[in-house]
Amino acid sequence: MEQRGSYRPSPPPAWTPRTDPAPLLPEARPYRVLGTEAAAKADPALLLELYEQLVRGRRYNAQATALTKQGRLAVYPSSTGQEACEVAAALALEERDWLFPSYRDTLAAVARGLDPVQALTLLRGDWHTGYDPHEHRVAPLSTPLATQLPHAVGLAHAARLKGDDVVALAMVGDGGTSEGDFHEALNFAAVWKAPVVFLVQNNGFAISVPLAKQTAAPSLAHKAVGYGMPGRLVDGNDAAAVHEVLAEAVQRARAGGGPTLVEAVTYRIEAHTNADDATRYRGDTEVEAWRAHDPITLLEGELTDRGLLDDARRQGARDAAEALAADLRERMNQDPVLDPMDLFTHVYAEQTTQLREQAEQLRAELEAEAER
Fold first, then answer.
1. 93-152 tens-digit pLDDT
2. Which portions of the sequence form the region Disordered (predicted)?
3. Is 281 a catalytic residue?
4. Whether residue 318 lies in the annotated active site
5. CATH of 22-274+282-337, one of 3.40.50.970, 3.40.50.300, 2.40.50.100, 3.20.20.10
6. pTM (2 d.p.)
7. Cβ(155)–Cβ(192) under 8 Å?
8. Could you state, in order of their start, the residue ranges of all structural domains in the chain?
9. Which residue in the list 72, 157, 252, 272 is annotated as catalytic?
10. Does 134 qualify as catalytic in the annotation?
11. For position 9, what pLDDT does the model report?
């Protein structure tokens, strides 16, 4: 063993970055398709599908908001103004892929094919989730901020280990990027090269906290570089652009290229939830400026200019949206039949001793109440 003071470190080898940062950097400005030369290359069928889904989604948001005022929903976090992100996320995935939504992303789940009533069951307070995640490949709506992100990474990594051709797309708000789960998810995903896409819907506020009070980074997309994955910055109200960027990220993940962080710059037109008073932290002028950049208006203008959208097609989209709202309204106004014993059904695959004891206690209380 060398004596104290005899150790002389040799000069370190020349330092080089583990990953070239240049290809990982996001766009200088949010990427756009609508209103640019790139729009002419967009698939007309895709644009029309996006448009119809946007119109449907706007009406869905309005109806769900009305249901909270009628006492049929305990809470509803509206995605009005953010429909382009919601719809594009659903359409960018294959049937075998998984969607990991946050509590604001019920529209994305509906656009993926989930029954609107089932999508709202959690927010009504009737059920833990309200649907079978495996059947629809839609993870449970995540009310805690960003906890769905590590889950998405775990599923994607497990799928790759098993040889399954599956990609996970995880949605989160700008507020969720301030959580530790965001860091853990992105770090693990990059190290493992997991086939996962992170979509950050930067709608300007984490409830009442503006983005400038959450981070000093040039953009949220720039955070990707620190984890060793590409960052993309896209106009979140441009449905065609969001779909293109997400579809490319999904394809890259499926081909073994690893994760991508996508920041979609959008705006929450309505309050955080029906329990929030947004006028306390933002003004009408700001909201109206974003209304002028409405995702439906942007896409409708492009389709009209290209002669792809006539009055009949426009009315057809509105009629389909009204039919969805009417069905949702009718079924949500029916009182559900609930079994209190269902509380124990989906906690563990095999019930613990404590759960069995609690279930028996509740069953005895219910039987005694029925006898009385």
1. 999 999 999 999 999 999 999 999 999 999 998 887 889 999 999 999 988 999 999 999
2. 1-23
3. yes
4. no
5. 3.40.50.970
6. 0.92
7. no
8. 22-274+282-337, 339-372
9. 272
10. no
11. 67
